[in-house]
């Protein structure tokens, strides 16, 4: 336990790795006055100073004194006897596509260099109301288009488990920050797996809620019918707490659902008795590595021991999900990104010219190659003469996928499989072959096409690299998803395992 210092003295760390505490442990410590919010913030800031140069999780960090001022406000409220919110005093990082008043929001793109929004996203407002301590903005694939966080204007993020490997994407900065102890919680966005796949690669928990469960107001849009905001966390308990805070209707988001948000912490039970779990054979098909298959098989055995009934099933249209996704998502992106013209905000090409010339030059220089590739693909898919052949057919496949999931729910409470077909791959390994990069999303994109909730959590390791287990649920049934994930997590005992760099500079003072 830490003791309060004498007046004017700094807090001293007595070999207490506070940056490793999950949010629910921080809440307990603050409520019992074992630690202070300033103490926790200092520990995490010290950790950022230690490892950020080798991880590169952030694109923007708030000034240290601002972070500490927020933490001290929480401490003052506790001292006054005010109730402590679930995320009060918890250091949180935000993906750089979430609008933050007074802080840059660049989507890791040159075209938004220097842009500072005049408002907060709804989820950011929710964190402020809780008294969460915002640390800064995390790196990402430009405009969330990528699976490795290598498509970023400022350079890539490195996987904390192996700096030569990618952290996944597009929320790779958020996943790496949580894995490395540079944040206790982080928010990401998931359009085709961008929360779950980096969670799998970095050995943390990533939760993609049902489409409409969390407001998208203030999220810079990639593909509006697919995007969803969700948390990356140390464990399933923290993910449940975070979603409880974020979820709910929002009149500013027309796609926000009015569905009641249940008590998600109450769903966390240590068994799966009475649950029927399906294993779609299409999620374990060609391209899924042997080590991933073996880890998932062992996890299924563990779920059976926890009381679940596990059976194989088939959703044939999942075989076409990746093709459909990479027509629908770029088509929506080509429309959403048309607003970035260099006229109203952000980067503008320096060469003079009329509007059309300036527009073309700005977008050519401001967008990176992967974003340009997807804009062109999407524009082509929507063009006259090709709309029905490509975009229309992709939407038909999406309908078939939704129907097959609906049929599966007649038999099963949840579906289980791998999050990603492999462990984290090497930096640069797939940059020259975009199709190979896209295959990283093969297990995750069906969930977005159907608008379902899903979670990724660690289920094993191969050569020191994490493997992710994915649990998929019915729409608005995050309770079952969290129950299955929590029961497995408690039985597997992998939630506390941290990357090798997690031991750096423990016990040092940061005052």
**How many DSSP E strands?**
11
**Overall pLDDT:** 93
Task: Summarize the helix and strand pattern as letters.
Answer: HHEHEHEHEHEEHEHEHHHHEHHEEH
CATH superfamily: Amidase signature (AS) domain
Q: Judging by the overall fold, what is the CATH architecture? A: Alpha-Beta Complex
Overall number of structural domains = 1
Count of alpha/pi helices? 15
The CATH class, by name, is: Alpha Beta
Features:
11 strands; 511 residues; single chain; Amidase signature (AS) enzymes; alpha/beta
Description:
- The structure is a single chain.
- The chain is α/β, with parallel strands linked by helices.
- The protein has one domain: Amidase signature (AS) enzymes (Alpha-Beta Complex), CATH 3.90.1300.
- Helices cover 36% and strands 12% of the residues.
- The protein contains 15 helices and eleven strands.
- It has an eleven-stranded mixed beta sheet, with helices on both faces.
- α8 links the parallel β7 and β8.
- It is globular.
């Amino acid at each position: 336990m830490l003791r309060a210092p004498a007046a004017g003295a700094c807090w001293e760390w007595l070999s207490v790795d506070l940056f490793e505490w999950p949010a629910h442990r921080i809440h307990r410590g603050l409520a019992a006055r074992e630690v202070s919010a300033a103490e926790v913030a200092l520990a995490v800031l010290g950790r950022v100073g230690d490892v950020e140069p080798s991880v590169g999780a952030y694109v923007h960090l708030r000034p240290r004194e601002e972070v500490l001022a927020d933490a001290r406000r929480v401490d003052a409220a506790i001292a006054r006897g005010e109730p402590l919110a679930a995320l009060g005093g918890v250091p949180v990082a935000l993906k750089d596509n979430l609008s933050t008043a007074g802080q840059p929001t660049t989507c890791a793109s040159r075209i938004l260099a220097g842009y500072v929004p005049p408002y907060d996203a709804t989820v950011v407002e929710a964190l402020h109301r809780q008294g969460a301590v915002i640390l800064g903005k995390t790196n990402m694939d430009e405009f969330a288009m990528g699976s490795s966080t290598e498509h970023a204007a400022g350079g890539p993020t490195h996987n904390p488990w192996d700096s030569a490997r990618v952290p996944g994407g597009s929320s790779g900065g958020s996943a790496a920050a949580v894995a490395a102890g540079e944040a206790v919680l982080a928010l990401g966005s998931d359009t085709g797996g961008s929360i779950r796949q980096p969670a799998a690669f970095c050995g943390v928990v990533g939760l993609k809620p049902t489409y409409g469960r969390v407001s998208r107001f203030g999220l810079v849009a990639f593909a509006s019918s697919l995007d969803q905001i969700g948390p990356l966390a140390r464990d399933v308990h923290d993910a449940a707490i975070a979603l409880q805070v974020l979820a709910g209707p929002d009149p500013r988001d027309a796609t926000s659902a009015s569905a009641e948000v249940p008590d998600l912490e109450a769903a966390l039970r240590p068994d799966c008795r009475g649950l029927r779990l399906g294993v779609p054979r299409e999620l374990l098909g060609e391209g899924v590595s042997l080590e991933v298959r073996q880890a998932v098989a062992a996890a299924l055995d563990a779920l059976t021991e926890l009381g679940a009934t596990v059976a194989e099933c088939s959703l044939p249209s999942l075989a076409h999900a990746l093709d459909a996704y990479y027509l629908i998502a770029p088509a929506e992106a080509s429309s959403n990104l048309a607003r970035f013209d260099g006229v109203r905000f952000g980067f503008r090409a320096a060469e003079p010219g009329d509007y059309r010339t300036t527009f073309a030059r700005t977008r050519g220089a401001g967008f990176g190659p992967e974003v340009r590739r997807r804009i062109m693909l999407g524009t082509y898919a929507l063009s006259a003469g090709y709309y029905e052949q490509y975009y229309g057919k992709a939407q038909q496949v999406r309908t078939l996928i939704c129907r097959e999931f609906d049929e599966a729910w007649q038999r099963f409470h949840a579906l289980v499989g791998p999050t990603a077909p492999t462990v984290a791959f090497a930096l640069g390994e797939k940059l020259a072959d975009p199709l190979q990069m896209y295959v990283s999303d093969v297990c995750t994109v069906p969930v977005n096409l159907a608008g379902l909730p899903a979670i990724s959590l660690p289920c094993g390791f191969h050569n020191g690299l994490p493997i992710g287990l994915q649990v998929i649920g019915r729409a608005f049934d995050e309770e079952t998803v969290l129950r299955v994930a929590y029961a497995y997590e408690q039985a597997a005992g992998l939630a506390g395992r941290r990357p090798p760099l997690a031991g750096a500079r423990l016990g040092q003072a940061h005052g």
